[in-house]
């Protein structure tokens, strides 16, 4: 086996990409990138009734949004069925697997009898050591021979050593009577053939691992390093479900979280590097290791997610923010921005991105530059523009027409008008904000004036004082 680290993400295309699956993909990606290895993608589409092209496309789109790239084209598990059957027959030829002719009725009868006698209901096939000469001409499954004594130890990089008594393992079916492989066989064959060295997946798969190791041992293949990561729980400590809010990755894009913030938050969800909460992609790749993964389930915290995302928006490149807002609007099924609006938004970004935690918040703050005049005033703005303040703004407007349009001079002019009416600057800022933005939430009035420019600022004031 090559010394290069190879990880894989293997989703089933039977629905949306769950937030837990997205984190598993991210952990595999980070570990491979940290170790200078490869991360591969396998679509586990053997469930033909439930697997859909639409689900596969949604998974690919979600991974792309999250910013994860893979080192090969996606591999279809279903298309590899002949190879899986080949391995089952090879185990048969080696004598480490056998043909079992027991019917479902016979298996059920065995279990019912065992239960009545208070014995283990683990099925022990009478065909395990049968003479091939006694085999009937009838349908059969291929079962791998599990050891009858001793223990199987899973050396897990997260959970530590997990020991399972071999008398608790059944002779697992690898090939069904119709010649199709079981999932448990397919996973092992695919991981081996893909050269996977590290299987990083949710700890709900831990019980499968001892059974999958039967195939590795039967084929005398190297067993990969397993790392079973705890699941994500809701804020109440219970398994994450739709009642907790968004569980599909695409929902987070549609809610307006930036991909970089999502990567940061998901990386920190169940993994730690000291007390670091906010970090860059480069730092995540540099720091990520399996030893930092905790054993306890992580809890989804939307407040913490928003705070992390806000910090990322604040340091993002302006052009990148505008590009991601396009993706957000599309995901949220909202009208896209025009080129002119994108230019205006980019110009205003310096006074928008420091306090926005999501793209909807940023767009709300940017409404002053995105909306066309005459502005529709919200209720608070209408109240702020009473006749007295309209009169003061009418007095202010001609003074702005001749200003040099620097922050210092604009502040001085507005301060002067406020003092002339024996009021503080804050009192005059409220009606000024109403006239410039049409709403009470916006950047500072001076940032808006500088962004809008002289002509647009004066025109908006004149709309309200005419």
Tell me what you see in this structure:
This is Glutamate--tRNA ligase. Monomer. Catalyzes the attachment of glutamate to tRNA(Glu) in a two-step reaction: glutamate is first activated by ATP to form Glu-AMP and then transferred to the acceptor end of tRNA(Glu). With 466 residues, the chain is mainly alpha-helical. It has 3 domains: 80-229, Rossmann fold (3-Layer(aba) Sandwich); 242-363, Orthogonal Bundle (Glutamyl-tRNA Synthetase, domain 2), CATH 1.10.1160; 379-465, Arc Repressor Mutant, subunit A (Orthogonal Bundle), CATH 1.10.10. 48% of the residues lie in helices and 11% in strands. It has 19 helices and 12 strands. The protein has helices at residues 19-34, 53-66, 81-94, 104-116, 183-193, 206-218, 249-254, 259-268, 281-287, 302-315, 318-331, 339-348, 359-365, 367-370, 379-384, 387-401, 407-420, 425-437, 445-465, and strands at residues 6-9, 38-43, 75-76, 97-100, 141-144, 151-156, 160-165, 173-175, 198-202, 225-229, 232-233, 298-299. A 3-stranded parallel beta sheet has the order 1-2-3. Strands 4-5-8 form a 3-stranded antiparallel beta sheet. A hairpin with a 3-residue loop joins strand 6 (151-156) and strand 7. The longest helix has 21 residues, at 445-465. It is elongated. The termini are far apart. The mean pLDDT is 94.
């Amino acid at each position: 086996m090559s010394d290069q680290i190879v990880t894989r993400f293997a989703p089933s295309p039977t629905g949306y990409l769950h937030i837990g699956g997205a984190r598993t993909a991210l952990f595999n990606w980070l570990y491979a990138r940290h170790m200078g290895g490869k991360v591969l993608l396998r679509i586990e589409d053997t469930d033909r009734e439930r697997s859909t092209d639409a689900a596969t496309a949604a998974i690919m789109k979600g991974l792309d949004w999250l910013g994860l790239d893979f080192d090969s084209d996606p591999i279809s598990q279903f298309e590899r069925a002949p190879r899986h059957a080949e391995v089952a027959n090879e185990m048969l030829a080696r004598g480490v697997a056998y043909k079992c002719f027991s019917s479902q009725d016979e298996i059920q009868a065995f279990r019912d009898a065992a239960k009545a006698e208070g014995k283990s209901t683990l099925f022990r096939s009478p065909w395990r050591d049968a003479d091939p000469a006694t085999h009937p001409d009838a349908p059969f499954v291929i079962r791998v021979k599990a050891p009858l004594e001793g223990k199987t130890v899973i050396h897990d990089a997260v959970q530590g050593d997990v020991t399972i008594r071999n008398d608790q393992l059944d002779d697992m079916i690898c090939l069904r009577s119709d010649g199709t492989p079981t999932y448990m066989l397919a996973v092992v064959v695919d991981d081996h053939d893909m050269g996977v060295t590290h299987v990083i997946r949710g700890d709900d798969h831990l019980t499968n691992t001892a059974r999958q190791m039967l195939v590795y041992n039967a084929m005398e293949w190297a067993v990969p390093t397993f790392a079973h990561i705890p699941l994500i729980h809701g804020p109440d400590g219970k398994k994450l479900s739709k009642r907790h809010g968004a569980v599909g990755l695409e929902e987070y894009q549609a809610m307006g979280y930036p991909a970089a913030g999502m990567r940061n938050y998901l990386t920190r969800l169940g993994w730690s590097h000291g007390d670091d909460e906010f970090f860059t992609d480069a730092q995540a790749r540099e720091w990520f290791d399996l030893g930092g993964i905790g054993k306890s389930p992580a809890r989804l915290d939307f407040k913490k997610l928003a705070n992390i995302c806000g910090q990322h928006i604040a340091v993002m490149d302006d052009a990148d923010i505008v590009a991601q807002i396009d993706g957000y609007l599309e995901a949220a099924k909202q009208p896209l921005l025009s080129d002119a609006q994108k230019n205006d938004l980019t110009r205003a970004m310096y006074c928008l991105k420091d306090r926005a935690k999501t793209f909807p918040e940023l767009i709300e703050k940017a409404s002053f530059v995105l909306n066309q005049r005459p502005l529709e005033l919200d209720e608070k703005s209408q109240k702020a523009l009473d006749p007295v303040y309209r009169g003061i703004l009418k007095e202010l407007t001609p003074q702005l027409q001749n200003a040099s349009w620097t922050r210092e001079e604009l502040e001085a002019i507005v301060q002067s008008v406020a003092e002339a009416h024996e009021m503080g600057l804050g009192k005059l800022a409220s009606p000024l904000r109403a006239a410039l933005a049409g709403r009470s939430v916006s950047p500072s009035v001076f940032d808006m004036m500088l962004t809008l420019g002289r002509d647009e600022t004066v025109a908006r004031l004149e709309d309200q004082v005419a």
